[in-house]
Amino acid sequence: MSTIQEITSLEGWDQHLSSLPPSTLLIISFQAPWAAPCAQMATVLSTLASEYPVTDPPSTSWVSINAEELSDISEAYDVTAVPYLVLVRGGEVLETVSGSSVVKVRNAIESHAKQSPHSASAAAGQEAAATNGAAATVDDKNGETTTEDPENQKEELFKRLKDLVKAAPVMLFMKGTPSEPKCGFSRQLVAILRENAVKYGFFNILADDEVRQGLKEFADWPTYPQLWVDGELVGGLDIVKEELANNDEFFKPYSVKANGDTPVVA
Q1: What is one Pfam family matched by this protein (predicted)?
Q2: Which domain range does residue 178 map to?
Q3: Confidence class of residue 259 from pLDDT cuts 50, 70 and 90?
Q4: Could you tell me if residue 75 is inside a domain?
Q5: What Rg, from alpha-carbon coordinates, does the chain have?
Q6: Residue 147 lies in a domain
């Protein structure tokens, strides 16, 4: 059975890529050790990998990459949040899955693992249908078309959001990334977190419209950026400024200076 190989260096990554034939489906899991959903996803992927036998040449290759330590690789695949799955064959990105939806991850892997390089392009041409507002999908096992209830979709999204807001003790949902904020409010909030030496995780809501729209309803807060602490919404830039004005030690429990931690580049 297949197992997940941890890539720990750029040299190891290059060697692994060069060892794979063009027909191999490369399953790349980007993760961060501080994010609880990543640990859950690691268990899911390990279980999925065990369902695929080791072949010669390999039909699948499973790797795990620390998105922060190997940031060059993360940037090459536009990784803006973790967990993040990338499926590659012959150097071409076939599909990406952001977040911890087990259903989406399994479906993506099963779909592309069954395809040869020649059949992949034909499958990509299929369009999703819609019936009375419910998403229509095709069951690969029997070819029947089924519909997914919008309420079930919403419930699944809210479960994902519940995990995301707890991905780190301090989570920033922003437009862009800390190194490249896409709005002034996000830029100012990043600056405040850095000034207070806060160890935090972030999510670029511009990279995932499902999260961008869903979090507004989930949080009952219509704007971005949003700052969450210990799974609870603090608010936007103005609220954070108010909290600091009332308590200049508001961020002290999460400061790398106070705890002696090694700073994390978000």
Answers
A1: Thioredoxin
A2: 154-259
A3: low
A4: yes
A5: 20
A6: no
